[in-house]
Design goal:
- The protein has helices spanning about 5-20, 25-50, 50-70, 75-90, 95-110, 115-135, 140-165, 170.
- With about 170 residues, the chain is mostly helical.
- The longest helix is centred in the last third of the chain and has 26 residues, at about 140-165.
- The N and C termini lie far apart (about 65 Å).
Length: about 170
C-alpha cells in the first residue's frame, strides 16, 4: 500500500469522528471526537509530506484534549504561540499560511466557553482547511472538511437556529 493510499484511508476514518463531533451538544464530547480525528488527520498530512499541516494537527490533538478540561485564555494563548512557532519552523509557503489560519481559528474555538461560539469559530477554521486540502491535492481530506463543515452547520441549526424559527402552530396564533 502506498503512503498516499494509506493517508486517504486514515482521513476516511477521521470523517466518521468528524461527522459525529457536531451532533453532540456537550462541548466535551465534541472536543474528544475532534481529538481522535486530529490524530488520524495529522498522520495523513505527514504521509503526504506536508509537515506544517501535520505538525499543526498534532498540536491540535493536544489542544483538543486540553480543552476538554479547560477553556483558559492562558491555555489558548499557549497553543496559539505553539502553532505560530510550528508554522514558522516548518514554513512551506502558502500552504503553511493557510493551515496556520485554519489552526488559529480552531484553537480559539476549542477554548471557547460555549459550544455556540466553538461552532462559529470552527466553521471559519474549516473554510481555511478546506482551501488548504484542495491546494494540497488530498481529495479525501477535501471531502472530510466539506462533511465536517456540513455537520457543524447541521448541529448549529439543530441546537440554535431551529429554536428561532416559528413553528406552523406559532404563526397561526
Amino acid at each position: 500500500m502506498t503512503p498516499y493510499t494509506l493517508s486517504q484511508i486514515l482521513v476516511g476514518i477521521a470523517i466518521i469522528t468528524d461527522i459525529l463531533s457536531f451532533q453532540f451538544k456537550d462541548r466535551r464530547r465534541i472536543v474528544f471526537c475532534l481529538f481522535l480525528s486530529g490524530i488520524l488527520i495529522s498522520s495523513h498530512f505527514f504521509l503526504l509530506g506536508h509537515s506544517t499541516a501535520g505538525l499543526l494537527m498534532l498540536i491540535a490533538t493536544t489542544r483538543y484534549l486540553t480543552s476538554v478540561f479547560t477553556t483558559s485564555r492562558r491555555a489558548m494563548g499557549f497553543f496559539l504561540s505553539l502553532s505560530t512557532f510550528a508554522a514558522a519552523w516548518t514554513y512551506e509557503g502558502l500552504l503553511s499560511i493557510i493551515s496556520y489560519l485554519g489552526s488559529a481559528f480552531q484553537t480559539a474555538g476549542a477554548f471557547a466557553q460555549h459550544d455556540k461560539r466553538l461552532r462559529q469559530l470552527m466553521i471559519i477554521g474549516t473554510l481555511f482547511w478546506l482551501l488548504h486540502n484542495t491546494l494540497a491535492h488530498s481529495p479525501t481530506a477535501v471531502l472530510m472538511e466539506a462533511l465536517f463543515l456540513v455537520s457543524n452547520i447541521v448541529g448549529y441549526y439543530r441546537h440554535y437556529k431551529r429554536q428561532d424559527i416559528p413553528t406552523y402552530q406559532q404563526t397561526r396564533q
